[in-house]
Amino acid sequence: MAEPRWETPQPLGVVAVRQEVLSAIAARAIAGIEGVRPLRGGGIIGLLGGGEEGIQITIRGDVVDVELRIAVVLGYSVHSVAQAVQRRVREDLEGMVGIAVGRVDVHVRHVIPPEEILMLEGGEDGEG
Length: 128
What we know:
This protein is of the alpha+beta class. It is 37% helix and 35% strand. The longest helix has 20 residues, at 78-97.
């Protein structure tokens, strides 16, 4: 079975981008937003009692759909943070890869007090 990837023909050949690369771009987009923490198996969600991946990319021909699970730091507007995540992920994927983004669904799974963020970040050797 072929690995999931997005391909687009160009004048000099085909550009192919693996699904993992799209996920990495989305993860970097989330990391740049104040008040949000992505959920991933070895990070925050692992400590809070879950194990599902925080970013899922679905490739549908020329379009990708993105599903994100995040935690919002207590004191930030959940609505504002979720909208910022949607905008940034869409802009980064479209700008860096040139792919059309269909949906960016954001699921806020936890609200984390700021003092727990400091404790979690220290426990992950500075990874946040």
